[in-house]
User: Which sequence fits this backbone?
């Protein structure tokens, strides 16, 4: 018992030292620090992970977490109203397109008699109207008037053909023309007549043949000498008018 009492202070001191000192077999281990990617990946809240990351590096925590702005598509431009389109057209008018004849066409046009062309111009509105009505080229009608009468509404041939387009009395009557010397009636009848002949024979040269010598001449295939000259003259005048933009 006395031995136990003597060892008690020493034993207590030894026990104290043993308890407070680290064990001899303990080894120091470095604690792995989490990377920022690992920290964010393990966090359920992006803002919480961001705050923890800032505290770990000693940076002040902002009030809100910065967000990368998402680019937004540009809003479609509204279409202009019809009124706005009209205002744009009025403010920026397009220059008028004026066809100009080439030098070749101008030189060819000078080959035609200017006084005859002036006469033709007086009946231009009637030529355009009845050509459109009968589906005939207006320059063909002008060429026929140029060759047949030289634009003279009172012309009468030795065979009895009358007016601008030289209608025979019987033909004029069939076409409903009461006065072949009236330029309006004459253009109406002559335009209708050449349109019917083109439909009947299907070719311009044959239609001109029939117009000058009669349909029976074409059917009998008898081409008079006068008609042989007449056909190319009409086609030539029409070609010049076409090239000149008339």
Assistant:
């Amino acid at each position: 018992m006395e031995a136990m009492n003597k060892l008690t202070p020493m034993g207590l001191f030894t026990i104290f030292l043993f308890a407070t000192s680290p064990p001899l077999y303990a080894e120091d281990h470095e604690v792995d620090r989490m990377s920022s990617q690992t920290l964010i990946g393990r966090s359920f809240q992006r803002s919480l992970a961001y705050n923890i990351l800032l505290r770990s590096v000693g940076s002040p925590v902002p009030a809100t977490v910065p967000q990368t702005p998402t680019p937004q598509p540009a809003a479609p431009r509204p279409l202009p109203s019809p009124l706005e389109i009209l205002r744009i057209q009025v403010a920026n008018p397009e220059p008028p397109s004026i066809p100009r004849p080439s030098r070749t066409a101008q030189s060819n046009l000078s080959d035609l008699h200017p006084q005859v062309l002036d006469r033709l111009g007086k009946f231009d509105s009637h030529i355009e109207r009845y050509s459109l009505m009968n589906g005939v080229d207006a320059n063909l009608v002008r060429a026929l008037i140029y060759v047949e009468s030289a634009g003279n509404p009172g012309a009468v041939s030795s065979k009895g053909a009358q007016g601008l387009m030289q209608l025979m009395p019987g033909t004029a009557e069939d076409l409903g023309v009461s006065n072949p010397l009236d330029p309006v009636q004459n253009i109406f009848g002559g335009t209708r007549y050449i349109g019917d002949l083109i439909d009947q024979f299907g070719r311009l040269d044959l239609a001109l043949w029939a117009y000058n010598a009669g349909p029976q001449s074409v059917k009998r295939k008898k081409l008079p000498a006068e008609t042989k000259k007449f056909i190319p003259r009409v086609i030539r005048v029409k070609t010049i008018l076409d090239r000149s933009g008339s």
